[in-house]
Amino acid sequence: MNKRKNNKNRNQGKKRNRTDKPYGKQPAAKGKPKGKRPSNKGSQQTVTTTCSGFTSDGKGIVQLDGQEVAVEHLLPGEKAEILVSKSGKFVNAKLKRVIDASKDRVEPPCVYYYACGGCQLQHMSNDKQEDFKQNVVDELMKPFVKPEPIMTMEHPYDYRNKSHTTFGLNQKRQVIGGLYAQHSHEIIPIDKCLIHDPKSDEIANTIKGILKSSKMQPYNEDTGQGFLRHVLIKVGKVSGEIMVVLVAASPEFKGKKKFVQTLRNAHPEITTILLNVNTRSDSMVLGDQEKVLFGKGTITDTLCGLKFEISAKSFYQINPVQTEKLYGKAIEMAELTGKETVVDAYCGIGTIGLIASRRAGKVIGVELNKDAVKDAIRNSKRNDVTNARFYQGDAGEFMVQMANRGEKADVVILDPPRSGSDEAFLSSVAKLKPKRVVYVSCNPETQARDMKYLEKNGYKVEEIQPVDMFPQTFHVESVAKLVRK
Ligand SMILES: C[S@@+](CC[C@H](N)C(=O)[O-])C[C@H]1O[C@@H](n2cnc3c(N)ncnc32)[C@H](O)[C@@H]1O
């Protein structure tokens, strides 16, 4: 397995010694007068306690009045002062000061870490992150088999091929761009995110500069005024192709020509620019309306030796280095001999199915997103694949129809969203009786739930492989092989 024990990356070697000083720029320490020891203050109270374990999202657990409470940025075994506030039955606890630090604590390499919330584990050494994720998967998979050691990443930074920057005005009405703070719509101005592809941050900073020097205003969610909401950037890590999607509140793009020209002059490496119009008030980044301003409107990248065209609205795995390991394992678990009929459910742009097609008799892909299905069909042509068909629709309904028609599937590979699959899909798998099911998941919790259903309905989990697709965050990917009993 790819262990990163010898990894000399940014936060290795910066472990702190045990000390009673506060650590880094912890959020709870912000704005508090140094050295002052607050005690009871209204419903707030400072408590000294010791962390007993982790929650599944990487927070520390402390016991308060017999109740388990989660504290961000606290590590098991650490003694700390925490600020506790109570409102009815609801207890909120924030880390104020670490008194006795864990050997696993490191200085977070990102200066925005405590304000941003996009990453949750940067205060842990890479080895500890690995242990934490392994334990999360081991714990969830206890009813099945012992998971394999997690596949980690040599350089667990700069991996995201997709970035998303939000623009707004600060209190001085200056243009800012960055990420939303956790659980809020407050923009944290950020110039560089350590898990983004560095090129995408350079481009986002250029766009911020163009906004500052033009009359274009960022969109204001409260007033509904302004134009530019977000910028989505997708980078083909192998091809070097770059897509910039300007997400605006209206299709009226004044100064469009000049904006596009200025951006292209600054970044000739951009291969396509799109305008996406999002008039919605929910948290969806992209709206339905899309217009290509420059280039072909898609980018292409290479994964596992095949070329894939990717649209703005299609899903594409965000960490291609780890995706190759994940897909390699999924294909190995499928045990294809060249004859099998394979279902690639929740197939996105067809990546897994097209890679499997080289060793299968026939591939049937199903996906809800229309643009992704178009990409999948184009991708099968682009790679001269003649034994794959892709269909648009709900995977559950599609499988019900397949089962009702008495169709055959030897292997079902599924890779649903975080919410997991559904009973329609899983009960149809049980009816179709494929020899093997390969379940790829970005949420082992829903994966375990669905595998429990499959175990009750004729399958046995034989192998589980966790993969760290999202270093520095609490998220973990898992791929499992189930065989017909
Ligand atoms: C985690 S992604 C996996 C995509 C692809 N397998 C890959 O590796 O790139 C999940 C995909 O499921 C699609 N999806 C979500 N709900 C769906 C449903 N009910 N039926 C079919 N596809 C769905 C999403 O659009 C997305 O493309």
Structure characteristics:
Rossmann fold, 7-stranded mixed beta sheet, 28% strand, OB fold (Dihydrolipoamide Acetyltransferase, E2P), binds S-adenosylmethionine
Quick summary:
With 485 residues, the chain is an alpha+beta fold. 46% of the residues are buried. The radius of gyration is 24 Å and the shape is globular.
Explain what the structure shows.
The structure is a single chain. This protein is of the alpha+beta class and 485 residues long. It folds into 3 domains: 17-105, OB fold (Dihydrolipoamide Acetyltransferase, E2P); 134-154 and 319-484, Vaccinia Virus protein VP39 (Rossmann fold), CATH 3.40.50; 162-302, OB fold (Dihydrolipoamide Acetyltransferase, E2P), CATH 2.40.50.1070. The chain has 10 helices and 22 strands. The strands form 5 sheets. A 7-stranded mixed β-sheet has the order 9-8-7-10-11-12-13, covered by helices on one side. The protein has a 7-stranded mixed β-sheet with strand order 18-17-16-19-20-22-21, with helices on both faces. The chain has a 3-stranded antiparallel β-sheet with strand order 1-5-6, with no helix packed on it. A hairpin with a 6-residue loop joins strand 8 (175-180) and strand 9 (187-189). Helix 3 (198-213) crosses helix 4 and helix 8 (395-404) packs parallel to helix 9 (423-432). The radius of gyration is 24 Å and the shape is globular. 46% of the residues are buried. The protein binds S-adenosylmethionine (SAM). S-adenosylmethionine binds at residues 315-317, 346-348, 351-352, 366-369, 372, 394-395, 415-417, 442. Residues 1-18 have a biased composition (Basic residues). Residues 1-52 are annotated as: Disordered. GO terms for molecular function: methyltransferase activity. Residues 40-52 have a biased composition (Polar residues).
